[in-house]
Amino acid sequence: MIPDPNSLYGPLDPAPDAGWSSAPPRMGFFTDTSVCIGCKACEVACKEWNGVPGSGLDLLGMSYDNTGALTANSWRHVAFIEQPRPAGRRTPPFAGTPTDGPVSAASAAVAAGTVERTGTDPGVPTGAPSAAARMAAGGTADVLGDPIAAGPGGTDDGGPGGGGPGPEFLGMPGTQPPGRGTGAEGRTDFRWLMMSDVCKHCTHAACLDVCPTGSLFRTEFGTVVVQEDICNGCGYCISACPYGVIDQRKDDGRAWKCTLCYDRLGAGMTPACAQACPTESIQYGPLDELRERAATRVATLHQRGVPEARLYGHDPNDGVGGDGAFFLLLDEPEVYGLPPDPIVTTRDLPKMWKRAGLAALAMAAATVAAFVGGSS
Predict the structure, then answer these.
(1) Which stretches of the chain are DSSP H helices?
(2) pTM for the full model?
(3) How many structural domains comprise the chain?
(4) What pairing do the DSSP bridges indicate for beta strands 325-329 and 27-32?
(5) Residue 27, by phi and psi: left (phi above 0), alpha (psi -120 to 50) or beta?
(6) Same domain membership, residue 206 and residue 170
(7) 175 with 265, same domain?
(8) Which residues, in sequence order, are CB contacts of 278 under 8 Å at separation 6+?
(9) In this protein, which residues make up the domain named 4Fe-4S ferredoxin-type (predicted)?
């Protein structure tokens, strides 16, 4: 029997589709990354409430984040993205270096007064001007002491020879505390992007569709939960998830992921992560209300000069029918490690069944023709 296509893609209320006759409103998460401070209180609360084992405090070598990704032992993951671009569209990073513009007069004065050695400059030939000397020159010489050509803005944009103060040099990374020189706005060598990632509880959950034991099921709240006592560790759900969320534990091979605190929902309680979030970055409630709240928040950020703010996973017409846990992002999804256009891996099942049936009929017809031709 070919399943109803609407059960595999497109807008859908998943709880009634799963057989819940009197389901409550669909519940979910809205995570506003613009107010996430990276405290990881959500990670700790999730582990404490659900008894998720620890996974060690490893240094990844590429980020201050020590979790790395969502795993069977990390159902919430606060991603730390250190981005070499200014916060709030202010000064470009690494000003005063060969890759960018001049330094501010305040920073040049500080550099000129530096008499003690602060270390060597990697890659600078012997005899080249020191960093302090280059900065004291007001940004008119590059790392080799040669004059820096004026930029496309000429001398009116604070470039070499310009009258403007120019951006503040903070080194690589910043060598001055915030507020030194031109003020706090000068500290713009990079910005932090933080996001508390979690299972998306997709409207069309491929992990649920491919589970052969019924370990994964749809709750009356529209969420997707793993019953670990039924899971046989086949791993089909792991390859089916378009987000790479669900994972197996190495010790027993079973699959684990966020349950959206199903036990707390049944008691009318807020999930542990949302309850612990100090900035209300993680918001829990009826999904329709969260979508309205998120749209208002995006409009507010656009009015305040943050045009890159966008929603991710909120659209019921996307490749997974919309997510039960969606996000407000401040950059492209790929920056956060999210797929730009996720598609439920089981959406083409009707076409696959149809083509398989046609192929079977063609093979049967060829077999009959071969027997008939051979007998004659």
Answers:
(1) 14-17, 41-50, 105-112, 131-136, 206-210, 236-240, 262-266, 272-276, 287-303, 349-375
(2) 0.67
(3) 3
(4) parallel
(5) beta
(6) no
(7) no
(8) 37, 39, 41
(9) 27-57, 190-221, 222-251
